[in-house]
Amino acid sequence: MVVSCHQSKNQSGTNLLVSNPDNSTLRLVNAGINNGDTVLPPLHFKPDSLEHIDFNQNLSKKTVPELRYLRNLVFARNGQLFHESYLRGYFSEKYKWYDSITTMIWMRVGDKIENEPEISTEEKNFVEKVDNLIKEKQKQNYIGNQGNSMQVATENIVNLAKYKNVTPELLDKLGKNHFAVIPDKVPQLFNVYEENSYNNIPSFVTSDLYLQLFHMYFTYVLRTIEKEKFIPVLEQITLAMYQNSKQIASSSVDPKIKKLAEYNQVFYAIPYELLTKKKLPVPKLYNEMYNSEIANISNASGDYGGSSFLDIDYFPYSLFKPRGYYTREEVLQRYFRAMMWIQTACFCRDSKEQLKNATFAAYVLNKAKDNKGSAVYDEYTTFYKTISFFVGEPDDLSIFDITNILKKKGITDVSKIADDKMIGEISDRLAEIVMTKNKIVPKIKLTCTDKINFMPRRYLFDNEILQEMVDTAINAQRAFPKGLDIFASMGNKTANDILFNMHRDDKKWDKFIPNLDRMKKMMNTFDKWDISIYNKWFDCLQGLTEQGKSDVTLLNTESWNKKSLNTALASWAELKHDVILYSKEPSTAEAGEGGMAEPPPAIIKGYVEPNVAFWKKMIDVIDLTDNVLKKFNLQFEEVSNYSKQLKDQVSFMLSASIKENKHESLTDKEYNYIESIGGEIDNMTLHIVLEHADGWFQVSSPDTTVSVIADVYLRNVPKCPKNGVLYEAVGRVNNIYVVVDIEGYLYLTRGAALSYYEFTKPELDRLTDEEWQNNIVKGKIPPIPDWYEEFTLPLKYKPASNEKLNYFFQYNLMGRLGLP
Prior knowledge:
The chain has a four-stranded antiparallel β-sheet with strand order 1-2-3-6. The chain has a three-stranded antiparallel β-sheet with strand order 10-18-19. The two termini are 33 Å apart. The chain is 47% helix and 11% strand. It has three domains: 4-139, no CATH class; 181-217 and 530-804, no CATH class; 219-439, no CATH class. Strand 18 and strand 19 form a beta hairpin. By secondary structure, the protein is an alpha+beta fold.
């Protein structure tokens, strides 16, 4: 017998490969190597005795997955412990000898088992032939013309065996669209990723996951600032305004000034009681009106009755129903009602008496000090500007505008407040100021045009678009705007196509095209993305939906454009939910150690949504938020920690997406990070919701699920049967199965996506998150958008994980094999 011996040294000893004349290989692994206190005997095996391969078989009709298994079988039978979890799991399940051989080799050679073993010449030739054939077939991973018509060759997906019950219907969706959406009943997006990690399913990290996390982070930041800063300041301001008005009322001998002071005394006693539950004494003349206002606000009736105290015929008491995250705690509910009062209880510029009341309030604001001796004007200014940086600039006139007029005029004598000539001059100046404000103006005037609020609600450009895209005629076909209007105005071709070619909105209203063109023109020159976190969030959504040529085939499809649009709309619903208190609502009319160490862990190759522009803009919005917090000295320790965590995670996603666009491989560390992301976000979200929680079992608020709702538009055309409220909402979590290219191979990955709903209800009793979530449980939900149905399959089509392909190290192999 002619024998050639090849020796190679490693940290554990000597490997001997003995080639026999019949071209088979006998492997002797580390004979007599000492492993701790145990001397392991040599391991002898012949690859052909483990699994025979016909090296001359016809390969032409085999698929890419079959060829991949076949080429890796060569290495498996030579004892390679595969680095990739799916391959390791596949051979572990399919061949009983695989775990035994690889475990015993690992015990002798350690981590070097992951290196490709030395194979025979015949095996090398066979592997080379298979690899060349795989490369040829991979050229057909995507079929059709480059661009929107490209389809996926689903037969080339290499890890389908990882899933059970992959139906023809699912494969059809994957082939046509590159992805498929399957709704589920899991409460949080991160639950999907945790399940992926548990079942060794490769994750597709969606933009949805981080938009949802930013929504939770944003509400945490705003909620923390409200509780720590805004609520105490609002209490001080309203009490100081009340006390100073009361003092002037009691000391003034001028009946006109006394009347103004008493009215303002009541005006600020109302929000003070709403906020603190403490009733302040008011003049007897106002007792009944005061009690009526408190009762109407507490009831938050949907009926648009008038307010005798404010002297207006229509006042939207339904707005005082706490919504958004303000339902979570009583202190936030009280703040919601008090803040809503000072933002919506108004004075009319064209009413001389009401303008005098507003001017008196401005005078007091300029002069007043709180119980701590601090200037109320300074507290008000900081409060006012902080909200501006979070949400946006005010849309109506404010008491703040009048304070500046009084300062410029040098008015320090309260007696001049009632002077008709001076009030006329203030009115004229306000008329000039209002030319730059009041962008969101109801089409039908039921009350005064130029309202003055103590602190107005904020202008949002998307609200202006909603306001302008409605036909106010009775029984109009286009009675309500759509979220699609906003993104079409921002230049999104997919949204525009749905509105015109699917919904045919241009046929429903003769002003649809000119109004939309006007909104497009407005947004084409819009450059105020950095003035508020709200706008910057929207800029991030614009980055998500930007449509251009990408190096990743998935992003070039019209299907993915629609998926991105759905995500943007869902995130927009969350955004509206978060700023529901501060934004000016558009309306039609006013109104253990020890034991044996395991082999190196296998790698699960996940994927990040490869939208580089989106991840960059997400970093921008995080940075802007951080800068705003620093600017106003609001950097609480926990807030800073969450800001850093969020930015670190998004920076990683950006780095990974850049690599994917260059078709570069991620490192093991990066793949491991993607695998663990569910647990990371679970922990972060839990402590955002309940700071010192040990687990979700301690959370009882609506934040246990992602489902939220926001009322964004009111139609209240007199005598119109189509009146009601437009809602934007997020429902249950969707599974999204996405075919991606990882290192030339097609993989089926799974991620989590937000669901989006838009619907109207005739009732004016605004829905809360709790009510919306209860409707979901009862199945009382509207259909998903019609343009999104083409990607969606019912839950019964959700494929299960094939647990048999999970790889777990067998601790008892040594004993089971009779080894010492």
